[in-house]
Specification:
The protein is α+β, with helices and mostly antiparallel strands. The chain is 19% helix and 32% strand. The strands form six sheets. A five-stranded mixed beta sheet has the order 6-7-5-8-11. Strand 18 and strand 19 form a beta hairpin. The longest helix is centred in the N-terminal third of the chain and has 31 residues.
Length: 383
């Protein structure tokens, strides 16, 4: 005997999708696939504005309204591509509680397997087809807010509605946001928003924190308006089979058809920042011989793990140090490909810096993610 569980469990399943899914607020349901496997969407072009010819048509035009343009009207066909299924057994020992056990098992399957898969697929489709994808960048507490504002500005440029935008971040990026001393996030979030996964507000956008397992590799953050992406979760069938051949108990089978489509004309409503996934450099070495009268200047500096080093002297005349001259050594550390210097990298992270008996001043400046400058002003050489 086969029992169709759709009517029994469908309301519960719908609620679970809206609460456990991290993408329900990122997509729209503007198109229905009920009774259809494909949907055609019109994609229309527009015409430019012209100066009206009050005293007659302009040169080369027959209309006072300007050049007459044909509007392009093409269709995009959205065809569901994901048809997935699962199956498991409920042992006969639990027969007396079969309905409860079936509901629990189905909820667990959706929560731990189905919804994460749908989220990963949806976010990956949005990332792949995002209208704005700047170059990969190492994100840190100092630059994360500026990078997010760049994304918000990009959506402003394309006149994406301000209301409805969502900021999607991983736990690591959310931690960077909380470390930024100049950033104040609104964390007093209504319960109905928390149910949808919203944990804070930033620049008018709800922040949704999503596990790294549900985003593509290299995911930094995403700003999206749901107008850009059509999300489809089409539950086809859930059934239990009572004592099928070879099984003492219930065989549960489920099938879900789902997909996500980024609309071509609305792709600019998605801004996707990739992180460089760089290895962080937390320490470096300074190895420079102090200036001595008539000694040969040091012209090279040894490199370290993840960085190269170059040295320059001021003043820079001759190959040997002059008498009664105060020299300054500038050592520039440059991170190798795939490396960045730690946030807040400073003098405490550099081994071998001279003390006050050899130098008048020592400064270490983290110029950027990939550059650190060490400036040492040595004491004057002997007469």
């Amino acid at each position: 005997m086969s029992i169709d569980l759709c009517l029994k469990f469908l309301p519960f399943v719908d609620e679970l999708f809206s609460t456990a899914s991290k993408t329900s607020g990122l997509t729209n349901k503007d198109f229905t696939f009920e009774g259809a496997h494909s949907v055609k969407v019109w994609r229309m072009s527009t015409a430019p504005m012209n100066d009206y010819g009050r005293h007659g048509p302009g040169e080369g035009n027959w209309s006072r309204y300007g050049e007459v343009n044909d509007l392009d009207a093409v269709t995009d066909t959205l065809t569901l591509r994901k048809d997935r299924s699962f199956t498991f057994v409920i042992d006969a020992l639990d027969e007396n509680e079969s309905e409860l056990k079936a509901a629990e098992a189905l909820a667990r399957q959706l929560r731990q397997v189905v919804i994460p898969e749908v989220d990963l697929y949806t976010i990956s489709e949005m990332a792949t087809n995002a209208g704005t994808k700047p170059a990969a960048k190492a994100l840190n507490a100092a630059n994360i807010y500026d990078e997010i504002i760049k994304g918000s500005n990009a959506l402003d440029t394309y006149e994406v509605p301000e209301t409805g935008r969502v900021l999607l971040v991983t736990p690591d990026v959310y931690k960077l946001l909380k470390k930024n001393p100049d950033l104040m996030m609104q964390t007093d979030i209504a319960e109905d928003m928390r149910i949808k996964g919203v944990i804070a507000m930033l620049d008018g956008m709800p922040i949704i924190r999503v596990p790294v397992a549900r985003v593509p590799s290299g995911f930094g953050f995403m700003i999206a308006h749901p107008v850009a992406t059509v999300g489809v979760e089409k539950l086809a069938a859930y059934k239990t089979h009572d004592n099928p051949p070879g099984i003492s108990g219930y065989l549960v089978e489920g099938r879900i058809v789902y997909d996500a489509f980024v609309l071509t004309n609305k792709a600019k409503a998605i801004y996707y920042q990739v992180t460089s996934n760089a290895t962080h450099i937390g320490s470096a070495s300074y190895s420079v011989t102090a200036p001595v009268k008539a000694a040969t200047r040091q012209t090279t500096h040894e490199s370290g793990t993840g960085y190269t080093a170059a040295i320059a002297w001021s003043p820079n005349a001759g190959t040997t140090f002059a008498a009664e001259t105060a020299y300054t050594a500038t050592v520039t550390l440059t991170a190798a490909s795939g490396y960045v210097f730690d946030d807040g990298f400073n003098a405490a992270d550099v081994v071998g810096l001279p003390d006050s008996t050899a130098a008048d001043s020592v400064t270490v400046t983290r110029v950027s993610d990939t550059s650190v400058k060490i400036v040492v002003a040595y004491k004057e050489t002997a007469a």
